[in-house]
UniProtKB/TrEMBL annotation:
Residues 184-300 form the Glycosyl transferase family domain. This is Glycosyltransferase family 4 protein. Residues 19-173 form the Glycosyltransferase subfamily 4-like N-terminal domain. The keyword Transferase applies. The keyword Glycosyltransferase applies. Keywords: Glycosyltransferase, Transferase. It comes from Kocuria gwangalliensis.
Length: 353
């Protein structure tokens, strides 16, 4: 088979990953290639050439001064993104060598243009319902869908019947580590991921905390997180994969603190693969990933103060978990190989139909 993977055009599919969607696309492409499946990728320029995937190029958007002066013009980034997907879908409609188009973007246009393709279009739902994708799916009943968790599938249940295929992590890259004397938090530094709550939990429990991830929201960092940094609570930056693995595998436990309906929780799976147990606030699909014996989820309380105190009290039980048992839990429930195999089976079904 030959599979076309559509990501979004904001960030390249390359390390260090901008977020979980880029990581998922990179590992899926790698897994497909290892199974002898050709891969065509559309993403932002600069995606990793070591994937050995054909990269779908698009022409940059060129706007005249007259177009720019239109008072009704939407943000230029939105125009550029839409035209990029228009070019990609037009190019794919002319190709006979691709068996399935697998849409991992968060844009409505691939769904809206699915009828123009010779191939079936599979869309993975990586987020809760969005106002652009929801009506596009309602108008495109032929588009098949997958969801990264049962929680996400449930959110979309009135729009599409999504098959649940949980994300997975590379158990070779995320190997067992010895633990350490501090906690860890990793992910995008944004309000909905709420690393400031991790800082408050660590401070309440009397533990050191190391925070890693891209500064995706500078204002949030400056106003909410930076004031909490200290000698014991530090920001390590946006780390390369090997550096992040070392940090996570040499930590006593991982805190995951979403303030939105977390679709899956890739950082939790990565941590458990290292043997590092997880304490997570149970939002969205995260509770499906973090459960004994790999970690513990605590229900979000009515206020941040209550959430912090209940999580700090629960930390002792998480720290008592055996690291080898945590690793085996990840092997059984969070394997990238299982994720890729399930997608390959889905591709084959679509081709046969």
């Amino acid at each position: 088979m030959k599979i076309a993977l559509l990501a979004h055009d904001r960030f390249p599919i390359a390390v260090p990953f901008a977020g979980g969607l880029e990581s998922f696309t990179w590992y899926l492409a790698k897994g497909l290639r290892e199974r002898g499946i050709d891969v065509v990728v559309f993403a932002a320029p600069g995606s990793d050439p070591e994937l050995g995937a054909e990269e779908l190029a698009v022409e940059p958007v060129s706007l005249s001064e007259q177009a720019r002066s239109d008072v009704s013009m939407p943000p230029e980034g939105q125009v550029r993104e839409t035209i990029s997907y228009l070019q990609v879908m037009t190019a794919l409609a002319e190709r006979d060598d691709i068996d399935v188009v697998h849409n991992n973007s968060l844009h409505y246009l691939p769904i809206a243009m699915a009828q123009s393709l010779k191939q079936p279009l599979l869309t993975t739902l990586h987020t809760p319902n969005t106002p652009w994708m929801e009506p596009a799916l309602r108008l495109s009943p032929s588009v098949r869908t997958a969801a990264v968790s049962t929680s996400i599938a449930h959110m979309w249940r009135d729009v599409t019947d999504a098959r649940v295929i949980p994300n997975g992590v590379d158990l070779d890259r995320w190997s067992l580590g010895p633990g350490g004397d501090s906690l860890v938090w990793s992910g995008r530094i944004v309000p909905e991921k709420a690393p400031h709550l991790a800082a408050l939990i660590a401070r309440e429990a009397g533990w050191k905390l190391r925070i890693a991830g891209p500064l995706s929201n500078q204002e949030y960092f400056e106003t909410q997180l930076k004031p909490l940094l200290s000698e014991d609570i530090t920001y390590a930056g946006h780390l390369e994969p090997d550096e992040l693995h070392h940090l996570v595998s040499h930590s006593a436990a991982c805190l995951v603190t979403p303030q939105w309906e977390e679709p899956y929780g890739l950082v939790a799976a990565e941590s458990m693969a290292c043997g590092t147990p997880v304490l997570a606030i149970a939002r969205g699909g995260l509770a499906e990933v973090v459960r004994a014996p790999g970690g513990l989820s605590v229900l979000p309380e009515a206020t941040d103060d209550l959430t912090v105190s209940s999580a700090a009290r629960a930390l002792e039980g998480v720290l008592a978990l055996d690291r080898c048992t945590v690793r085996e839990h990840a092997r059984a429930h969070c394997s990238l190989d299982a994720t890729v195999d399930r997608y390959v089976d889905y591709y084959r079904e679509l081709v046969a139909q």
